[in-house]
Structure formats: C-alpha cells, structure tokens
Amino acid sequence: MLEWISALSTASSGGNVKSGFEEFKETISSTLMSGQFWAEALFVLFKIVLVLLIARIIIVVSDKTIQHLIKDREESRLKIDPRRTRTIGKLIRNIITYAINFIAILLILSQLNINLAPLLAGAGIVGLAIGFGAQSLVKDVITGFFIIFEDQFAVGDVIQVNQFKGTVEEIGLRVTKIRSWTGEVHILPNGSITEVTNFSVHNTLAVIDVTVAFEADVQKAMDLMKQTVDRVHLESEEIVKPPEVLGVQALGATGVVLRVIAECKPNQHIGIGRKLNLEIKRAFDEAGIEIAYPRMVTYHRQEAKGGA
C-alpha cells in the first residue's frame, strides 16, 4: 500500500506525467502479482474474522450467563423483585455488547495499520464538544440510567407522568414510551420525567357504593351483599383478601348508600368493581331489593268547601 502511494505521488509531481502513471501501474501490477502481498492480506483478513468471531462468542456467553443468573435469582428463596432483576439484566447485556463491539472495532482498525492515538484523541474532543452542546441529551441519559438502576418503574407497569397515563412499553436510556388504554403511544424524554405515579407496585382497592331505596330492608341488603362479594372472591383470583361490607356510607337524596371495599392485585380494581356491581345488582333483583333512583311524589291538595 505504501508503495502505491509513493508511486502515485511521483506520478502526480512534476516531470513526465505519462511515465509516472506507467510507473504507478507497474507498481500496482507487481504488488498484485506478489505472493507476499496476498499472504499478508489473507493473514490480516484471518485476524479480522477471528476478532469478530471471538467478540460474538463473548457476547453470546455473557448473555447466557446473565440469563442464568437472573433465573437463579428469581428461583431463590430471597424475596427479589423479578421486574428489577430483568431490567438490570437487560441493561448489563446492552453495556457488555456495546463495550465488546467497541473493542473489536479498535482491534480491527489496528490490524489495518491505522494509528488509534489521534483517532481516540479526536473522539474525546468531539465527545466533549457534543457534551457541552447537548446538555439535554446528557440529562436524558443520566435520568434514564437512574430510572433503571433505582427501579422506579419497569416495562409493563401502569404509570402516570404529568397528564400521561398508560402502560410502559419501553424504557431506554434516552426516552420512555407509554401506551395509553386507547392505543396512543407517548414518547417522553427521560429528562422531562420529574414526578411518576406507579399503579403497579402495591395492591389496589376497589370501592363500590350501592344505593338502595329508603323503603328497603338495609340489614337484609347488607347480608346479601356480603354473601355475593364472598362468592365473587372465591371465583376470582384478582381479589387478594375477602371483601368487606362497611355498612351505611351516607343517606343520600334518593336512598341509603352502602359501601363495599375489596383489595385487588395491582391495577385490577376497575375490572373487579364492574364485576361486583353486576353481581350485586343480580342478587338484589332476585331478592326483590329495590335500587334507589330519582323519583317525584305529587300531593294533590283539596280545598275544604265551606257552606253558608
């Protein structure tokens, strides 16, 4: 390669351009016909392929090792949140993959006789300039790292960030994707996430208020509600504790308000509330207990007729 460059510079310098070009062609031809050139080229190619193969093997082995460690952690007797182990495991795999690929690229460049010192120095200067010019990007990356490391939320959790509420689709070092229940996907820079409400960490509470008419037997209604919610608890795995009939919550304008509470698995209280409302309504209909509804009673006043 150096011989080609020297011959090309000689051809482009003063003097006979034609003879210089002929000399350049002869240099290329002699080099390509040289067995030493092809031996060195094949040896360099072999080393590049070997570097890529070793890098791939290291990535695969490290990935299998991390998956094995995560599985052991999940099956151990220690109470470790599997969400946290999976999230951190994915982050570690990405870091290892990036690091191995970067080292492999440096080794390949060194095999091509490229001086890495100026390249690394230039990359450091460029990185410093980018760091000053992209402070928001650096903020997003740092915030994303702490979100993953501190396990503030994980993929599959239902969270609310500002006015956005939905299921976490993806957590990256720069952005977080949230899918709302109507299907929209909100992409939020991690640096803009200042307050997060996570609905998937602890159990939730379903609160059901049922209003019965003033004429109904309140005690009979409460006993029937207790039987109904206990039956639903036995049929549903989402209810973690037996529901409680708290009793009379309020005396409303149209009837007596009875309240039931049920502790459910995270983010399951809405569906359980609908199911309990349906079953209580069916039970009241079968027992003849009337659900309160707005009504109007009209009194007709009759004037007394006086006679003379």
UniProtKB/TrEMBL annotation:
Residues 94-135 form the Mechanosensitive ion channel transmembrane helices 2/3 domain. Residues 137-200 form the Mechanosensitive ion channel MscS domain. Keywords: Cell membrane, Membrane, Transmembrane, Transmembrane helix. Signal peptide: none annotated. Residues 207-291 form the Mechanosensitive ion channel MscS C-terminal domain. It is found in: Cell membrane. Pfam families: MS_channel_1st, MS_channel_2nd, MS_channel_3rd. The chain crosses the membrane at residues 41-61, 91-110, 116-138. It is a multi-pass membrane protein. Belongs to the MscS (TC 1.A.23) family. This is Mechanosensitive ion channel family protein. It comes from Paenibacillus thermoaerophilus. The lineage of its organism: Bacteria, Bacillati, Bacillota, Bacilli, Bacillales.
